[in-house]
Specification:
The chain is an alpha/beta fold. 58% of the residues lie in helices and 7% in strands.
């Protein structure tokens, strides 16, 4: 049952401050608490996304319009579990809350978004934020799930016990948003008294350190208390911090370091550990609050989430379920998507025919039909498959199953020195390597984070999907949808295996470190937000079409020019193409790629696809529209008709497999290289990544081709 937050809270010592004081509101909270959903509800379309200066952490800001037309700046901070930060995202969030970022003002008000279904864990962060002495409101989010679980939360009582406003919300349904706006408009401040206590000896030592921090670093007592607990929890890690920025990014003075170490030594002699004692004290206090505010009416054994997890996280059936989901996804890609793909293909064919009938014969018509329409159409036709891929990925994220994949994959990831958290960026890279690489920021260890970045592009992203699809169509023209899905799944699994092997190699050589411990919360299963799923699909399709209408369009024009000039009288078809600038480049590359079974025409496609992998398909469309195979009705048929000068078929099953394997491992994406440079702040790692993946792709494709020939395949 939802109990509304009372508007009058005289018992909390709530005061109305002048409206002009509230200029900046910061949203914080645990990951998966609905913080970003609340941010979107506040700001609607009035938001900006960028990076904080000097760091690669994403900054999301927006404006909130209040009832009196007053504008408030809203900052969506990265999710964090505690102030004892371990990742760049968490460190940045804490620095903003403590006013230690030069370009971002210290927030006038903090809204801590709390997952009402996981109050115990979420209130731990609340207790730490209270220590900072910041004006704060609790957004008790996902109250609809609490009701479905058969629980009641007395929000008014929770508010009195915490000493701050508590507003029940369902951000996805815009419930509680107006109440939050009203409190922001009133400019509420709360006087907070710390309710939890540690052992008296530890309290005395912490107080001594607080005085030192106030004296030496000129901190206010609230911030000093929070900092003192963090410093005392560092233990031996503080020994060498004299010349390093600490967790709060200030330079510890040698005298202060010495005093902290002395306090730590005294605590050890008394058998006290500041970090453990503080954690236990906080949770004891939290449990006492929950006993008074939460009532569970559902005492009938394990809930639905636990029953589902018994299957999907099982060491055997979990893998069966995961592979089944992947197989279903690829089956739909090769069955359901074929109908809209045929419509798009027919549309571009009719467009080309119309242009041919309308324009007079010449270079302009040739450019539009064989360059622009063939190039762009050759990629746009795969839009339905891209949409199905993103539909499944969004569905897995919204339902909570994505976190389960990290859990079951941890058994594999741990064998190569990584933990399950690395699998989330890797799985995200199935859609696109760029967000996958950016999501690696949540990994605490710098070396583990770098290893994840280096292997993330080995996951088969959506840009590879057109290449796989056309190769599978040539390889198995009469195959069923399930057979094609099996080959596609094999390519995706090959990427996973390659990523694991390379991660193991990096962890054993360049980036050696201790085996990480995997700790991850499994969120409850939720019905997906179909609106959010559709929005996600729309955004990805818009970006795909934008890419097709800009990068691929421009490259198609450039490739057409390179393949059309210089013009030679008396040369036609393949001879003219081979004499062109593009043909000359492909011919120069042919000796290198011939052991892979590729000729100069495939070489042109490889060169073009260094900009983006899907450009290979558009390049091949242009190549074979300009060559002898121009009379064929489709690119697949053109591939099947292509041959070597001696009459041997070019696109044999072995060559098709070799090309797919090459694109599994090759880093042919300029955007990915750029994002790795930004994330690592160095050209060293993106160049290393490009070189090692190019070598790996070449050797893997060579092995497929040569071993296949030794076994009698062609």
């Amino acid at each position: 049952m939802l109990r509304s937050f009372p508007k009058r809270m005289s018992s909390l010592n709530v005061q109305s401050s002048p409206q002009s004081l509230i200029k900046t509101v910061a949203l914080t909270g645990n990951p998966n608490s609905g913080k970003t959903t609340l941010f979107n509800a506040f700001t609607k379309l009035r938001q900006k996304v960028g990076n904080y200066p000097g760091v690669t952490v994403e900054r999301k800001t927006g404006t909130l319009m209040l009832a009196n037309d007053r504008v408030v700046n809203v900052i969506d901070l990265p999710g964090m579990y505690s102030l004892a930060v371990r990742s760049p995202d968490e460190q940045l969030a804490r620095n903003v809350l403590m006013g230690r970022t030069h370009d971002t003002p210290k927030p006038d008000l903090v809204i801590c978004v709390v997952d009402a279904g996981n109050l115990e864990r979420n209130l731990y962060l609340v207790s730490q934020l209270q220590d900072l002495g910041l004006p704060m409101i609790i957004a008790l989010n996902m109250m609809d799930e609490v009701e479905r679980q058969g629980k009641e939360i007395d929000a008014a009582r929770l508010s009195r016990l915490l000493g701050m406003p508590v507003v029940p919300t369902v951000a996805s349904q815009n419930k509680g948003i107006e109440e939050l706006k009203q409190l922001i408009s009133e400019g509420v401040t709360v006087s907070y008294q710390r309710g939890w206590r540690m052992a008296p000896d530890l309290e005395e030592e912490v107080e001594q350190l607080v005085r030192l921090l106030v004296q030496h670093e000129h901190m206010d007592r609230h911030a000093a208390f929070a900092e003192a607990l963090i410093l005392l929890s560092l233990g031996a890690k503080l020994k060498n911090e004299e010349k390093k920025p600490g967790p709060a990014q200030w330079f510890y003075k040698e005298q202060l370091i010495r005093q902290i170490n002395m306090i730590q030594d005294r605590l050890r002699l008394k058998g006290l550990r500041a970090r453990t004692a503080a954690i236990e004290a906080r949770y004891d206090w939290i449990k006492s609050i929950l006993k008074q505010c939460v009532r569970d009416k559902n005492k009938q054994g394990e809930d639905l989430t636990e029953r589902i997890d018994a299957v999907v996280t099982h060491k055997l059936w979990g893998w069966v379920f995961f592979l089944g989901i992947m197989a279903l996804m690829f089956y739909m890609i090769f069955t359901i998507a074929t109908y809209p793909m045929d419509w798009i293909d027919a549309g571009f064919t009719q467009l080309g025919d119309w242009v041919t009938r309308t324009l007079p014969e010449g270079q302009l018509r040739n450019l539009i039909v064989n360059g622009i329409i063939a190039g762009v159409g050759g990629v746009v036709i795969f839009l339905p498959q891209i949409l199905i891929l993103f539909f499944f990925i969004s569905l897995l994220q919204d339902t909570g199953y994505m976190a389960r994949t990290a859990f079951i994959m941890d058994r594999v990831m741990s064998k190569v020195g990584l933990h399950g958290k690395s699998f989330i960026p890797l799985l995200s890279s199935f859609a696109c390597a760029i967000p996958g690489i950016m999501s690696a920021r949540t990994i605490e260890s710098p070396k583990d984070r770098l290893v994840t970045i280096l292997v993330a592009p080995l996951m088969s992203c959506s840009a590879r999907l057109p290449v796989y699809t056309i190769m599978i169509a040539v390889l198995m023209p009469a195959a069923t949808g399930m057979q094609k899905a099996g080959i596609m799944l094999t390519m995706y699994m090959l990427g996973i295996v390659g990523a694991c092997l390379m991660a193991w190699l990096f962890k054993k050589t360049l980036l050696r470190s201790q085996k990480p411990v995997f700790i991850m919360e499994l969120p409850p299963y939720r019905w997906p937000s179909w609106h959010a799923v559709m929005i996600h699909m729309w955004e990805r399709s818009r970006l795909f079409l934008k890419r097709a209408g800009t990068i691929i369009l421009a490259l198609s024009v450039i490739l057409w020019v390179l393949m059309s000039y210089p013009r030679h009288e008396g040369l036609q078809g393949s001879d003219a193409l081979k004499a062109s600038f593009a043909g000359q480049m492909g011919t120069a590359l042919e000796p290198v790629i011939k052991p892979l079974g590729y000729d100069w025409r495939i070489g042109i496609g490889l060169i073009g696809s260094f900009a983006a992998r899907e450009v290979f398909v558009s390049t091949m469309s242009i190549v074979f529209n300009l060559g002898d195979e121009a009379q064929e009705n489709s690119l697949r048929e053109a591939f099947q008709a292509a041959h070597w000068p001696d009459g041997r078929p070019l696109f044999t099953p072995l060559v098709c497999l070799s090309l797919m394997v090459f694109y599994v491992f090759a880093l042919q994406c300029v955007s990915t290289i750029a994002i790795v440079w930004r994330e690592t702040n160095s050209w060293q790692w993106p160049l290393f990544q490009f070189v090692y993946m190019a070598i790996l792709a070449y050797l893997a494709a060579l092995a497929v081709c040569q071993l296949g020939r030794m076994m009698g395949f062609v």
